[in-house]
Write a structure and sequence with these properties.
Elements: E1 4-6, E2 17-19, H1 22-28, E3 33-35, E4 37-38, E5 43-46, E6 51-56, E7 65-70, E8 76-80, E9 87-90, E10 105-107, E11 124-125
Parallel strand pairs: 2-10, 10-11
Antiparallel strand pairs: 1-5, 2-3, 4-9, 6-7, 7-8, 8-9
Organism: Saxophila tyrrhenica
Domain CENP-V/GFA: 41-109
InterPro entries: CENP-V/GFA, Mss4-like_sf
């Protein structure tokens, strides 16, 4: 059984972000998920019958997140948020090939576990969502007051 998708032809850096989600950590036992991309051009090409959707209302924003997963194995595959209809979150583990994909941003760094190292390729780290404040290099819990300095 395969679930196939067609992804927009975008450079990998336009797709990738790492999200340290407390919801994932507490409820689904995942520390983070690496994904994020433009919804335009994203198409499920096969296996749609194997997908199920869970509406997750336990989010920081209070807005429900639609989590699509495989009915057979339970793997998280795609997420959609009403806060931004232009993006789809595609779990990197759901893809056959993603070696060229490197995160260019991190979100919800406030929830990043202390034992996780910061990703070197990241250009921006956000305390919470990408619409919020940048993380300071010296203090991961306070908003940035100056431009982000890449490590």
């Amino acid at each position: 059984m395969d679930i196939g998708v067609l992804l927009p032809q975008l450079p990998a850096e336009n797709w990738i972000g790492t999200v340290y989600c407390s919801n994932l950590a507490e409820r689904f036992k995942h520390d983070c998920v690496t994904n994020l991309g433009q919804c335009q051009g994203f198409v499920i090409t096969e296996g749609e019958d194997y997908l199920s959707t869970y509406v997750d209302s336990m989010t920081d924003s209070g807005q429900p997140l639609q989590r699509q997963f495989c009915k057979n194995c339970g793997s998280n595959l795609f997420n959609h948020t009403p806060l931004n209809d232009d993006i789809v979150s595609v779990s990197a583990g759901a893809l056959d090939e993603f070696e060229d994909w490197k995160p260019s941003l991190e979100q919800y760094c406030i929830h990043r576990a202390d034992f996780l190292e910061k990703t070197k390729s990241v250009e921006a780290r956000y305390i919470e969502s990408i619409k919020g404040d940048l993380e300071r290099e010296s203090d991961s819990t306070r908003p940035a007051t100056e431009e982000f300095v890449q490590q």
